[in-house]
Write a structure and sequence with these properties.
The complex is a heterodimer of chains A (160) and B (338). Chain A is of the alpha+beta class and 160 residues long. Chain A has helices spanning 2-9, 12-25, 66-70, 105-109, 135-144, 146-157; strands at 49-51, 76-82, 88-96, 115-117, 132-133. With 338 residues, chain B is mainly alpha-helical. In chain B, helix 1 (2-36) packs parallel to helix 11, helix 3 packs antiparallel against helix 4 and helix 4 packs antiparallel against helix 5. At the A-B interface, helix 2 of A face helix 1 and helix 11 of B.
């Protein structure tokens, strides 16, 4: 009891606190300067969507609509029709990125690995309506980042 | 006539120097607290973020001063000035070297005490004239807190007064000559601690910042202020912090006296150092303590603040003053020789 009083009047606990913060003053800083530095991403990262193609340029999507069905946020809307060569293809494939919760179910459900979620996280919309990505935009993303997309799937394949 | 011009010139120089110091102080506050929290603080505006405070000031200058429709117009606009003017005026008696002050008066300590107490009027009037419940609550807390802590602070200063037998700040420093152990921090250690804690409470800084307590009363007395009016409150708060830091240096840490006085080998080596460097270095350390406290301690509860002020600090200061009086009567060496 009496030693407690002595400690209180010597501001012991306060000095201990000051010592701790004083130590941290000289510690290595953990800040990551975002646009210049980035934290590493997992190959499973679920970011912006993309539609892939086969190496011969044929689009993968066969309009099975499994992704549309499995989507818990009802963010995917697909219409389909037979193409001239008789195969079933999508006529439109739209994803509402505001509705999307980036759960990755669409990618899981896709039998032909067509719809994927890339590791792109930096994207923005400037006008109302721009958040709905159509088939052309999604295919364009897929064409542009095919290398990274393929590499990420490759890396993750052995764990599936 | 010429004398007035030189005085005016000194005052202008002082104000500019003080404002520059405040600007650097806000920058270092953000940097130091950032570093203590393992962050790196502002680093985007200018090299290593040095222009950040300039950007902040520009932003505040360009913003509109919004006046609440039911506020008392005159008091609302004079309150910031009422808090700024006393803490600028207090700097008039600060000695930077023996007898180098704008006004080297014999009641310097009393003048300082009067000026630091006047600052509370700005806080109270701003809180009341804003016609806002948060501002009023903040002002009430501030009034109670400043009254509570002025008394132990006054008694701590009384201890210095008794030891030095003078209210002239230059004399107080000169009485402490003779090296670190001769400074008043040693014989008046409890008074120093109480002075310093009261100073933190008086300037409404963390951990005694219930006046602004953003978690319960938004920002306290200055919620309704924006733009340059807010900037003036901000400026006076930081001026006050610098003021009490320098005051602590002068009264307890030998002002401009070199800490190596009496240690002949080092003293000779450091002969070239002008004496105001020591004053600024010590003041700088005391200013750092403010930031260090803010990064370390959680905010006191309001009733704890009152208990600390009235029930703990007041008896301790009274007791130590009696002990000090005995020591002075016994001419305890080396502090109370005369």
């Amino acid at each position: 009891m009496s030693s407690n009083y002595v400690k209180t009047f010597m501001l012991w606990e306060l000095l201990k606190g000051l010592k701790l913060t004083g130590k941290h003053l000289f510690k290595r800083k953990v800040t990551i300067l975002y646009p210049e530095e980035k934290t590493p991403k997992s190959p499973r990262h679920r970011g912006l969507h993309a539609l892939r193609r086969y190496p011969n340029g044929e689009e993968r999507c066969i309009a099975c609509k499994l992704c549309e069905v499995v989507c818990p946020a009802l963010a995917i809307t697909i219409t389909s029709a037979p193409r001239e060569d008789g195969t079933r293809r999508t006529t439109s494939y739209e994803i509402d990125l505001f509705k999307c919760i980036y759960c990755g179910f669409c990618e899981e459900s896709c039998p032909v690995d067509s719809i994927v979620e890339t590791n792109i996280t930096d994207f923005h919309f400037e006008n109302r309506g721009e958040e709905i990505f159509n088939k052309q935009q999604l295919l364009a993303i897929g064409d542009k980042y095919e290398k990274e997309i393929a590499k990420d799937r490759e890396e993750d394949a052995k764990y599936r | 006539m010429l004398e007035y011009f030189t005085t005016a010139w000194h005052i202008a120089f002082m104000i500019v120097a003080l404002i520059v110091t405040v600007i650097l102080y806000t920058y270092s506050e953000r940097k130091v607290i950032g570093f203590m929290q393992d962050r790196i603080g502002p680093n985007r505006v200018g090299p290593i973020g040095l222009l950040q405070p300039v950007a902040d000031v520009l932003k505040l200058l360009l913003k509109e001063v919004i006046r609440p429709s039911h506020a008392n117009r005159y008091l609302f606009l004079t309150a910031p000035l009422l808090s700024l003017v006393p803490c600028l005026a207090a700097w008039a008696v600060m000695p930077f070297a023996p007898h180098i002050a704008i006004a080297d008066i014999n009641v310097g300590l009393l003048f300082l005490f009067a000026m630091t107490s006047l600052g509370v009027y700005g806080v109270i009037l701003s809180g009341w004239s804003s016609n806002s419940k948060y501002a009023l609550l903040g002002a009430m807390r501030s009034a109670a807190q400043i009254v509570a802590y002025e008394i132990p602070m006054g008694f701590a200063l009384l201890g210095v007064l008794m030891a030095s037998q003078s209210m002239n700040l230059t004399t107080i420093v000169l009485k402490q000559q003779g090296g670190i152990s001769h400074w008043y921090w040693l014989p008046l250690l409890p008074l120093l601690l109480i002075y310093w804690i009261s100073a933190v409470a008086e300037t409404n800084r963390s951990p005694f910042d219930v006046v602004e307590g953003e978690s319960e009363i938004v920002a306290g007395f200055h919620v309704e202020y924006s733009g340059i009016a807010f900037a003036i409150f901000f400026l006076s708060e930081y001026l006050n912090m610098i003021l009490v830091s320098m005051l602590a240096t002068i009264m307890f840490f030998g002002g401009w006296l070199s800490p190596f006085e009496g240690v002949l080998s080092i003293q000779k080596f450091l002969q070239w150092v002008p004496n105001f460097v020591w004053l600024f270095a010590k003041t700088g350390f005391m200013m750092l303590l403010f930031l260090w406290f803010r990064a370390t301690f959680p905010r006191y509860r309001y009733d704890q603040i009152m208990r600390l002020g009235w029930k703990i600090f007041l008896p301790i200061t009274l007791l130590w003053i009696v002990l000090e009086a005995v020591a002075i009567q016994l001419h305890l060496q080396p502090w109370f020789a005369s």
